[in-house]
Here is the input.
Amino acid sequence: MTQTLATERTASPTTSKQEQELATGAPAREASSITLEGVKKFFNRHDIALDGVDLTIRPGEFFTLLGPSGCGKTTLLRILAGLDTANSGVVKIGGKDVTEIPSHKRSINTVFQSYALFPHLNVEDNIAFGLKMQGVAKAERDRRVRDMAEFIQLSPLLGRRIEQLSGGQRQRIALARALVCEPDVLLLDEPLSALDAGLRGQLQVELQRIQRRLGMTFVFVTHDQQEAMVMSDRIAVLNAGKIQQLSTPREIFERPTNTFVARFMGHTNLFDITSRQANKLETPLGILEVETQTQGNKVLIRPETIEIGPDAAQYANQFTALVKEHFYRGSFIEYRLQIGEVSLVALSSNQGQKLYNVGEQVLISVCPEDIVTVASED
Amino acid sequence: MSRRSFKASLTIYWWLLLFFLYLPLAVVVLFSFNSINSAATFESFSLRWYRELFSDSQVLSALSNSLILAISSSVIALLFGSLIGYGLYRHRHRKLGWLIILIYLPIVMPDIVFGIADMTFFVRLNSLTGWLSPGLDTMVLSHVTFEIPFVALIVYSRFVGLDATLFDAAKDLYASPLKRTLHFIIPAIKPALISAFFLSFTLSIDDFVISFFTAGPQSSTLPIYIWGAVKKGITPEINAVGALMIGAVIVAAVISLLVTHRRPRQDS
Here is the structure.
């Protein structure tokens, strides 16, 4: 892999890899896949970080490990980077077993949460660090650092010291320092979590564009489900060291397979199934007509699929609900409703329609195809 | 007392403190430039005593012993002390608090205890094995011993101030253990190394008690020479030695302070 790259470079010494990519839109190197087989990591008998993870990440994919803190996502990332060793299991990158290969010999680079820029080096030397350690000659190194600085739009900062930079600038330099090494895989450990919301949104889009442009395999770690959905091709939701669900953002949001995933994605309307017939489920809410059902013993009604008001009359699963609270959220209105003893949340997109007041009785309905059955997590 | 007079008395206290701290030093420096041999009257400015000092072979040998001792002991202490500092940092997550206490203890131990213990040890060792007869060798060993804890603590606290992820970043960016040491660890702790060196140097130049007990007949340092000379009365020559030492210590201390308190290069 490295060999082919080197030949490519000598063949076209004047144009950088990034420029070629910018011109052609095609990645200059073949992206790598990642395979994890039965990866386990425990710090002691009671502190199990990863409880047997099997996972395949496709070449060129933007893959996200999503989960709450302590779910094992950072440990998994550190095992990929070679900064931690798994107690058992196999890690393969591009088909090659790297389980025993130390970090500095893996063609993987990481963007750390704290950025980890070297305080004793200026911006330019920080970006050049990985190339220098790999023994890339000075002239070649300078050229690649300059090209990368241009690519990521921070050329004017090259001579600055790290302490003179803002959080956003540091984040981009950390990214440049990793990308300039042209690794098989780029790992990103919550790289946006220290930034304010506006900048974070901007960098989410930018990161995604860079990944598409380079066609590099990105493994991104976050606890923010919105961020995961915006950026990823596929998401693995982790909890207690196990993968709970691995799928596309849409599938995970709309068809969570268990209650952990459903709750983590922000869904609250989960009800027990007390008995079931072919296409009917009995729940504390009443009888629900569904289109398909899986083995799950809970039913999920996503708040935005609930129809409120006169329109509700045209669908199945109609209920009369009492408005307990309502919150005006701008682009939508959140209603806290009560049906008998059961409370549920509904989100109604704001199209200037009439708002319902607290204490009003409203007709609601849910389309059978929007109802999902999910398994309890244990 | 009114608030205002309280503040005024604090100011007076401050100036009195400085006066008593620095007046004796100033007198030493002033009288080292006296043209006559008197500790009571200052006649006129002259470099006479400095000239005499630098033509006195005893003083010159004491000066050279002091410098050899200070430089070599500081270099050795820097090497071993920073290894200890790094070790303490690397294994800080284990329960090693007692190790730090072992490092702190020599710092608060009275010099006289150290000096006598070292002397007894070296004399006994010498009579049993014939190794290490009292002289510069034994003095360097003793000085290294009392300097190491200072170096270890300075280096350790510099490491603690670094973002621990930097070590991961260096590994992640293809640095082998040797390259990590050369291109990351040493440059990152350089200020601590410089400041530890100068602190050791100052401690060594300044030490009388431990040097006195571990010195041999040919290895007088400046403090030992001064102590011997003072027994015959204070001469302007001694003042000149004192003035030179004050100058050297101030220079070393200032460099050490400047390096330690230079604006940290990392602010998050």
In short: Chain B is about 75% helix and 0% strand.
